């Protein structure tokens, strides 16, 4: 018998993409490297690029809140420029400005985690699959044709289409309305389960709107692995988290789903 609550009653899964399906922190770190290389050898970013990723993310999240209609590619480029300016580096002097422009198309080429595509294929045997992502339309199209090729999605809802960024509750209301209309899935009848890595962008608002959720931690349950996903212990102590399942990887989650459906079939 499984130690996890029942996963077989849902008809659709909604996924965060970047950080859950796509290894966006590693991809972002690589795209920040020209800026990092321009800093003095003693700068903390040189020895720990994850610090640059986190500071970049601070700028990006500020823009989510203050310029919610700014498309994600432009958000990334502007965040790069702000981080460079903050560090005293001329962004337009990095590869003649190519570094700032290149980061804007990063979401279309950053790699998927090694378990992602296989897990999505297996999960797609049991559920309809939906993406709810803080991304622009052009980049998600490139990601689907590139690092996510081979995975099926029944619907994709982007921040660009919605006009705001998670953790805005408007994004989740949009999700509920559209999966009901587009896929016949009713969140209020228990048909939808949200699957995400980010605590702050996904799991905190999911609890606020009563959406059941799975945490794909990818190391984020330990302080050294928090990254940009949020401080797990702090958010837990504040009572802001309500996820019912925790798996380290999407592959682990798919394994449990396969086990539960097999057990259910065998019991008939």
From TrEMBL:
Q: Which Gene3D superfamilies match?
A: 1.10.150.750, HAD superfamily/HAD-like
SUPFAM superfamilies recorded:
HAD-like
Q: Which Pfam families match?
A: Hydrolase
**Cross-referenced InterPro entries:** HAD-like_sf, HAD_sf, S-2-haloacid_dehalogenase
| UniProt GO molecular function | hydrolase activity
Any idea which UniProt keywords this protein has?
Hydrolase
User: What name does this protein carry?
Assistant: Haloacid dehalogenase
**Per the UniProt entry, what species is this protein from, by scientific name?**
Thermothelomyces thermophilus (strain ATCC 42464 / BCRC 31852 / DSM 1799) (Sporotrichum thermophile)
């Amino acid at each position: 018998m499984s130690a996890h609550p029942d996963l077989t009653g849902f008809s659709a899964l909604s996924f965060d993409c970047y950080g859950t399906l796509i290894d966006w922190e590693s991809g972002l770190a690589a795209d920040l490297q020209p800026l990092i290389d321009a800093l003095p050898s003693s700068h903390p970013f040189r020895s720990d690029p994850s610090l640059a990723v986190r500071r970049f993310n601070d700028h990006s999240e500020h823009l989510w809140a203050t310029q919610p209609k700014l498309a994600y590619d432009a958000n990334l480029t502007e965040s790069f420029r702000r981080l460079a300016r903050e560090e005293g580096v001329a962004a337009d002097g990095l590869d003649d400005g190519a570094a700032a422009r290149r980061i804007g198309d990063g979401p279309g080429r950053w790699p998927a985690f090694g378990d992602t595509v296989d897990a999505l294929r297996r999960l797609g045997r049991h559920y309809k699959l939906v993406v709810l992502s803080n991304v622009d339309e052009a980049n998600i199209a490139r990601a689907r044709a590139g690092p996510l090729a081979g995975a099926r999605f029944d619907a994709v809802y982007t921040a660009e289409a919605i006009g705001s960024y998670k953790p805005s509750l408007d994004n989740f209301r949009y999700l509920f309305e559209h999966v009901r209309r587009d896929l016949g899935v009713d969140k209020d009848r228990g048909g939808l389960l949200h699957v995400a890595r980010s605590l702050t962008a996904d799991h905190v608002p999911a609890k606020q709107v009563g959406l059941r959720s799975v945490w794909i931690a990818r190391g984020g349950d330990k302080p050294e692995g928090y990254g940009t996903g949020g401080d797990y212990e702090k958010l837990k102590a504040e009572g802001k988290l309500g996820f019912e399942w925790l798996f380290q990887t999407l592959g682990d989650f798919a394994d449990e789903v396969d086990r539960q459906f097999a057990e259910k079939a065998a019991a008939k």
